[in-house]
UniProtKB/TrEMBL annotation:
Signal found in the keyword field: yes
Domain of life: Bacteria
Annotated source species: Aquimarina amphilecti
Annotated PROSITE patterns: PROKAR_LIPOPROTEIN
Protein name as catalogued: Lipocalin-like domain-containing protein
Keyword presence, Signal: yes
UniProt keyword annotations, A-Z: Signal
Signal sequence interval, chain numbering: 1-20
């Protein structure tokens, strides 16, 4: 019985260690400047949707934006520009990559903040699936409902 208990504890600790190792490696990989090359959503419908991300940013407005991630203090920013964007300027956020809860399903959390790194929307944040991450490419995805239909948004980043 003791052997089974020790074996179970060992397996539990090693599985937690793998998740911690991924989180540490992801923080190292994500550090730096990225460009959001493409943003789209998967659907079989022919309906046109006005999809917004991160609260109220039109999906097309977020394409070609530069994102900076600073891993030593988990802060970052992105800049919106262009005449088609309703709200241009620099936007700050605090980010984290929590330990995976369900197998390999890792996510990234973004919490919008002001210049003083304080939340202005009651600590509201956004959780996205960290679909892929390596040294030069990153893909986020998340599901949303638009006009009663489930859409999967994908954001494709390239490292600068």
């Amino acid at each position: 019985m003791r052997i089974i208990s020790f074996l179970f504890i060992g397996i539990l600790l090693s599985s937690c260690g793998a998740s911690d190792a991924f989180t540490r490696a992801a923080k190292v990989s994500i550090n730096g400047v990225w460009i959001l090359k493409r943003a789209n959503f998967d659907t079989t419908s022919t309906t046109k949707y006005n999809v917004t991300v991160l609260g109220d940013v039109p999906l097309k407005c977020i394409e070609s934006t530069n994102w900076e991630f600073i891993s030593n203090n988990n802060t970052g920013s992105y800049a919106l520009s262009g005449t088609s964007c309703p709200n241009t300027g620099n936007y700050n956020f605090i980010w984290s990559i929590p330990k995976g809860i369900q197998g390999d399903n890792h996510s990234i959390l973004l919490k919008p903040v002001n210049e003083k790194m304080k939340s202005e929307i009651n600590n509201k944040g956004y959780r996205m699936h960290l679909y892929e991450l390596n040294e030069d490419k990153m893909i986020w995805s998340y599901d949303m409902i638009a006009d009663g239909e489930k859409l999967t948004i994908k954001l494709y980043f390239d490292k600068q």
